[in-house]
Amino acid sequence: MSNDTHNPNLRESATFDRSTMAEIRRAAETGIYDIRGFGAKRKLPHFDDLLFLGASMSRYPLEGYRETCNTSVTLGDRFAKKPIKLDIPVTIAGMSFGALSANAKEALGRGASMAGTSTTTGDGGMTPEERGQSKKLVYQYLPSRYGMNPDDLRKADAIEIVLGQGAKPGGGGMLLGQKITDRVAQMRNLPKGIDQRSACRHPDWTGPDDLAIKILELREITDWQVPIYIKVGATRTYYDVKLAVKAGADVIVVDGMQGGTAATQDVFIEHVGIPTLAAIPQAVQALQEMGMHRKVQLIVSGGIRNGADVAKCMALGADAVAIGTAALVALGCNDPKWDDEFKKIGSAAGYYDDYQEGKDPAGISTQDPELMKRLDPVDAGRRLANYLRVLTLEAQTLARACGKNDLRNLEPEDLVALTVESAAMARVPLAGTTWVPGQKF
Amino acid sequence: MNTFDLSTNTVTELNHALHAQKDKMTQAEWVVTNPKGSHNLAVGLDSELAVDIHGHAGYFCAGMNKTASITVHGNVGQGVAENMMSGVVRVKGDASQAAGATAHGGMLIVEGNAGARCGISMKGVDIVVKGNVGHMSCFMGQSGSLVVCGDAGEALGDSLYEVHIYVKGEVKSLGADCVQKEMREEHIAELTALLAKAGVEEDPASFKRYGSARELYTFKVDNASAY
């Protein structure tokens, strides 16, 4: 591999590239692993490796501006008295107050509500700002149980039991001392300023048989009113989904390895889990084999950026998607207008991932009161709502082109793959062929 | 007093009837018969009820309790009084693992023994165990007090935050960052009050106190071997 210097005789090692060597020097200097936020940065098979087969002779399309294409979805109608009804199939993933500022949480609630969808709490409890601005709020039930209480549980529109997340399946949360302010410490019942490590597994149950009882407990406490989701990081997705359904989940959330985090070890983010693309067919197969596809809804997250990604997830069998990183970018995360400020802290707009340090110039992943003021929750909420509408319009455009009057009518048959890897993972044919790697004919 | 027979009614009907007391209190005292190890008994209560369960209870009995007083005249399964906010839960027999897990307030009294991880991630509850507690008890305990009148198993108080632990008997081993601490007058006073509130007759002076060394509160390279 050549580098970008002027001397063509200089050749950079593909194995020991500059980034790799920089990390070796950093490790040698500090003696501790690198902790950062964001999601996997390595190149992975992703939705860009799939294409839609638009209608022509063998299929007929729908008119873009005249014929409707439904985007609404109902989640959790298996057992709950009050399932969640969303106008669009794009939800906001769980992100904690603590990791994010109160203004950012409020903005997420505002944007989601304007667009007719739900937002989700995180590892730190429910804030009044978020509940107040979120018409539909999913309350996460995490191993740490920070801020967990029955009053907030009953205020929630759904409960999401978190077993893991795509950025760090098998790992717990992490919130370093810089962000444990008085308010965060009070909500989590922790000393101010410590490096907080959340548990990686739930304290009062182990395994799917126990989980079935835990789900019933939550249903009893909430009088069977609200749906119960189970969120897993994508690893052994086929088996995890089967066990989650058997345990009684109303909705399954599968988070691929491109999913973001507020803070964890870099080695965890880059080397644990499977790509979102590979996880969806596993989850759908599990649901179909149990006769539960569309009865237990599937939400997919991890690296979703545009309406094409949304449509491809749904074509592969998801009922809805969740976005986290993209939602933060819509609010203003990594915005180039703060580039000078990013440079002052050794980063650059578009590269910033040290969410754990609490110095985010954009005022999103911080608890610094002065930095927080930079994010206007009303304006940021409006940007998020706009972005969500664009995602929906784009997904509708693709669905109509495939002749579908409902996003959930998209199907794998509408897709082809550009690479052998993505064809094998997504279980759709390589473009121009009938070949699906790994499948017999 | 209202008697609720679980041989002829469901757990959901029991919980629904108890929850309804929050809107309009019609009966403050309840007796539950024939629990036969059922799970999720008397969970999510939010009013000043007195509930007596005659028999053994399964998992998560009295989970997320607020203000109610719940007594189990038998043994309880995993996660009794998990995430309790306030009130009193008394177990006349033994408790399985994770008793009082993540509980934020109130008092849990186990008159027998408690299994592994008693008080795991506790967040303000006071737990008094007349017998022994199992391994990893008070793991990641954040605040509140754990009183053990018998012995404690391996790795007591591992990764402890600010819980006050008092043990009368032997401690098989301490977990990471948990150390024995001086028993000062204020601790004797605190323990005396806890024992009195729990109705347990023990000499506070015969207990030892354990707490966090606070060495692992921030990441330090020198502590890597402790993780």
TrEMBL record, chain A:
Keywords: Oxidoreductase. Residues 111-133 are annotated as: Disordered. The keyword Oxidoreductase applies. Pfam families: Glu_synthase. Residues 111-121 have a biased composition (Low complexity). InterPro entries: Aldolase_TIM (IPR013785), GltB (IPR024188), GltB_archl_type (IPR043578), Glu_synthdom (IPR002932). CDD domains: GltS_FMN. GO terms for molecular function: glutamate synthase activity. It comes from the Bacteria. Residues 80-334, 360-404 form the Glutamate synthase domain. GO terms for biological process: glutamate biosynthetic process. PANTHER family: ARCHAEAL-TYPE GLUTAMATE SYNTHASE [NADPH]. Belongs to the glutamate synthase family. This is N-methylglutamate synthase subunit C.
UniProtKB/TrEMBL annotation, chain B:
GO terms for molecular function: oxidoreductase activity. InterPro entries: Glu_synth_asu_C_sf, Glu_synth_lsu_3. This is N-methylglutamate synthase subunit B. It comes from the Bacteria. PANTHER family: TUNGSTEN FORMYLMETHANOFURAN DEHYDROGENASE, SUBUNIT C (FWDC), TUNGSTEN-CONTAINING FORMYLMETHANOFURAN DEHYDROGENASE 2 SUBUNIT C. The lineage of its organism: Bacteria, Pseudomonadati, Pseudomonadota, Gammaproteobacteria, Oceanospirillales. It comes from Marinomonas balearica.
